[in-house]
């Protein structure tokens, strides 16, 4: 519901003095949106315009109390962007022509009708605030180049800080930042992440040889993990091993020198004893049934896993011999004995176990009896007095291995608390009619440790 009043305008009257351009369409008596100090917004009536100081006075009724305030022109135009338009000089709306009966001559006079919204009042006579959009459309002012450059620098700084926080979080999860080798380890991890094994050049084509050389990587032990040692070995393919060596340039910048080595087979730290046996000793087992002499020996530094590979898993000082190469060879030997091809040979299996320590030979199955190594008439090396025990199953073979290892010489070193200090040779011998038919020698060599380790252990071999 709205009330109407007629405002006659005659061409004979003197024209109204126009407002200054920067005041736009602001006039006394119109409603404008204002914002209170508590961020509340509502409509108010313009009661005064000060063109010299560029401010306007507005009034409104709140709880039966008439209130008012002065507001600068810029704030009024920001909250009421439509008042800044110079295209529509009629700020009051809507407009409608008056009935012809209201005036006498339509050719000499015109009439405008101004619609004034009727205020809803409460029982106490208070006027309710008119609903105003919570987010009025503000005028977009052009920022100065200096301000734009400052905002750009701030955004770049915030982006760098976010990246630095992410890097710190990743470092905290992956590795202790106090580790002095963190930079080198990070370079190795990045190299492995982008390593393409298909592009690794093999030093020479893989061929069948009478001697097969394989290498196995072991994981870091508890002592190395505590000291935060680096894992500098990578096995990118089944016959290539890479060693990452840290170098330093003249400007003290660190970089990696990656050296590549090729073998017949290469196994990473996740390979099992069964997988190692499949490519090393297993192809030799059948050769002893064809009157061959086969040898498989483990060579490496102290603590590199030679006894673990040959004898089986460790649980403290106890060793599970059922998962070593000794047991796997014995299983295949007794399996081939039941083969129809070799069953008619009437072969019998014997086992011997001796060690070489300090240049002397001792029988581990005969209370470490000292033995002599001589050459026979056929220029073959023979261990004189070595006790041979016949075995009929895998369990008896493992029993001989356990007896021999219990007598084997071992010492504590800086690398291994129970390091084998002697060369141990376990032999599986096949005989037919009391004569030698084939022999498989499984050798667990003593540790070939560095000089720094030998100073902390016995030098005897």
Automatic annotation (TrEMBL):
PROSITE patterns, sorted: KINESIN_MOTOR_1, KINESIN_MOTOR_2
GO terms of biological process kind: cell division; microtubule depolymerization; microtubule-based movement
Keywords, alphabetical: ATP-binding, Cell cycle, Cell division, Coiled coil, Cytoplasm, Cytoskeleton, Microtubule, Mitosis, Motor protein, Nucleotide-binding
Record flagged with keyword Transmembrane helix: no
Coiled-coil residue spans: 146-173
Location(s) in or outside the cell: Cytoplasm, Cytoskeleton, Microtubule organizing center, Centrosome; Cytoplasm, Cytoskeleton, Spindle
GO cellular component: centrosome; microtubule; spindle
UniProt KW Cell cycle keyword: yes
SUPFAM superfamilies: P-loop containing nucleoside triphosphate hydrolases (SSF52540)
Positions contributing to ATP binding: 300-307
Domain of life: Eukaryota
Domain spans labelled Kinesin motor: 210-461
A single MF term (Gene Ontology): microtubule motor activity
Similarity comment: family membership: Belongs to the TRAFAC class myosin-kinesin ATPase superfamily. Kinesin family.
PANTHER family given in the database record: KINESIN-LIKE PROTEIN, KINESIN-RELATED PROTEIN 6
Protein name, UniProt field: Kinesin-like protein
Lineage: Eukaryota, Metazoa, Chordata, Craniata, Vertebrata
